[in-house]
Amino acid sequence: MVAELAARDKKLAGIGEDELVEIILKYLDPSKPYEHLPPGDDARDFLPRGPKQVFSSDAYSFSSLKLPWRTWRDAGWAGVVGCISDHFSKGSIPDIAMVSLGLSPSMSLGDFVELIEGIREVLTYYRVVYGGGDLNSSSDPWISASIVGFTTAKKPPRRYGARPGDKIVVTGKYGAMGIVSIDGVEEASRYKWVVEATRRPKPQVETSIVIAAHYRWIDASMDVSDGLSYTIHLMAKGSGLSARIDSPPLHYEELDEFCRDKKDPKRCVIERCLAGGEEYGVVLALPEKYVGEVTSYMDMYGVSYKVIGEFIDGGEPGKIYWRGREISVVGWDQFRGWSSHS
Amino acid sequence: MVAELAARDKKLAGIGEDELVEIILKYLDPSKPYEHLPPGDDARDFLPRGPKQVFSSDAYSFSSLKLPWRTWRDAGWAGVVGCISDHFSKGSIPDIAMVSLGLSPSMSLGDFVELIEGIREVLTYYRVVYGGGDLNSSSDPWISASIVGFTTAKKPPRRYGARPGDKIVVTGKYGAMGIVSIDGVEEASRYKWVVEATRRPKPQVETSIVIAAHYRWIDASMDVSDGLSYTIHLMAKGSGLSARIDSPPLHYEELDEFCRDKKDPKRCVIERCLAGGEEYGVVLALPEKYVGEVTSYMDMYGVSYKVIGEFIDGGEPGKIYWRGREISVVGWDQFRGWSSHS
Question: Pick from B171, B332, B176, B169: which is nearest to B269 by CA?
């Protein structure tokens, strides 16, 4: 194996696939005792760890993950955590992950090792086994994670199942990524709290436990990966409903300060909470009569949340209303760039 | 949804992610009755279908998959079949797949639909459920497939477990991709049999059944994705052995014809059988006393194979010998290009 520390400036092109795979396996090797196929084999074998299994996949171009203040280590974390968040929103505990990479031959070995360390850190933090993956070269680097988890929920809550009158319960904290998307990366980089809050998104595994325990009552559930308004918009549209927002979700107190001197401070706050992405909270559609029971479990497990509004029958499906007016839903479209959704 | 047939020249950039996902779901929607999370949700749920599960992942840059005679439909097939082949080599039946894509905004809708149809065809052919995936934009398009399968084998055979004296049993047919890699794409394109044989690799599911039924006797197993010599080289090296080749594997009879007028026809044949890639046969390391029993099952299941040599103790680990001389192992390295392995 390459003596990495002595060769951190070396380019991947000068090292070659076999040795890079060895480095990956050195860093990501938490094999489980019950498995027979070792890391580096063509596949991994594992035992089902729950009555029902959940499978999800998420991929990113690194150019979209690499906020200027994110190191390669942070990008490795961010490239895997979205797939983990999908599991939490379905009441699943992620168990084993495949992570494939497309990297540039001009990447330095030092950056490569940092990236792998970031992947190891997120897998270790969430106790997910690294199962393997595939290494490719790409002039437009990317990461793809696929994770199998398990759940005790007979029917994990769907994305599209909200019913009229369901309360919109939102977990997680918002506002930082909204500043990035509305005010721009440069402006955002001036605020230490924004930088800190967006470096490494940390969804809460406890959310999954609360969801699995109450799946019968949860009409719909979706994690916030592309912005809160886009998430609520999709859930409403897919359920043939619209949504009324009554108050902002939990957000960073620095956001109130940021908005204090703006023309319409309340609008400034709500817009930045609704825009953004990668907050990885969960939006639940919950009948009013179950809100108390479910949120009492959230309190018990330390899951932060707020009831911010209601899914309503009336208005155009997918529309979001605030103070009686429609709020525009702007989201990132992989093929069209920033686009408004309706 | 876009009227695809009327808009096949339209670019993905003009269509947008949401509609493209709708098209994917329209084409790839074989939901199973026992599943609760529908296609298009953030994850899929499924029941374990065997005592032991197998998980594998494979990714490609389309630039490496798109032989000039491969349509996008063929490329979709080729981008998923490698992951299926991994399962077969471990005695696993692939069950549910996640397929993520990175595509260029300048790709036409017609090509996009062809690609999705190719993915559908390979999943349908092998009875694998489409579980979902993620859609991204990329200037260097790629495909990543992750598949969960199940096996009855308590210990699926590893890559690295060959023992001295083990026979090298090779399934599948060779020689066509060897012409592509040794004689070049242009020369290869002149031979109809080469074009036909390399368009859509078709590994045999029956191989998996034979392997699962005899896993106790199989010391090692690996599928041929990057060339036969590279596969044997890795298996030998990882087992601390070298390999002696006595005769070529099953190959296209047109290859004998192709080599007839060459200076050393036998060397011409063996070199083209050993080079190549994507043949997706399986190389087994099998103690001599079990060869008869295992191959009789191959005969029964219609799996074509040949015993081509032996793993030996002596020589340098990983080396391959033919007629008493070392054969050079040339394989494609993602970061260094064509490279010799040792």
Answer: B176
Contacts of residue A90 in chain B, CB cutoff 8 Å? Answer: 37, 41-43, 45
> The tokens of B233 are what?
């080289």
**How many whole angstroms separate alpha carbon A192 and alpha carbon A179?**
12
pTM equals 0.93
Can you say whether the dihedral through the CA atoms of B60, B64, B70, B71 is positive or negative?
positive
Size of interface A-B (CB pairs under 8 A): 230
CATH of A4-151 among 2.120.10.10, 3.30.1330.10, 3.30.70.80, 3.40.50.300: 3.30.1330.10
Burial of B323 from C-beta contacts in 10 A (0-12 / 13-18 / 19+): exposed
The pLDDT confidence band at residue A82, using thresholds 50, 70 and 90, is very high
- Taking the C-alpha atoms of residue A303 and residue A213, their distance in angstroms, rounded to an integer, is 14
Interface ipTM: 0.91
- Which residue of B53, B136, B334 is in closest CB contact with A137? B334
CA–CA min distance B122, chain A (Å): 19
Q: Which residue among B140, B158, B335 sits closest to A38, beta carbon to beta carbon?
A: B158
User: Residue B45's pLDDT is what?
Assistant: 86
Segment 49-88 of chain B within 8 Å of chain A by CB:
51-61, 86-87
Sort B38 into a burial class: Cβ within 10 Å, 0-12 / 13-18 / 19+: middle
| pLDDT < 50 regions, chain B | 1
The amino acid present at B2, given as its one-letter code, is V
In CATH, B167-341 is 3.90.650.10: yes
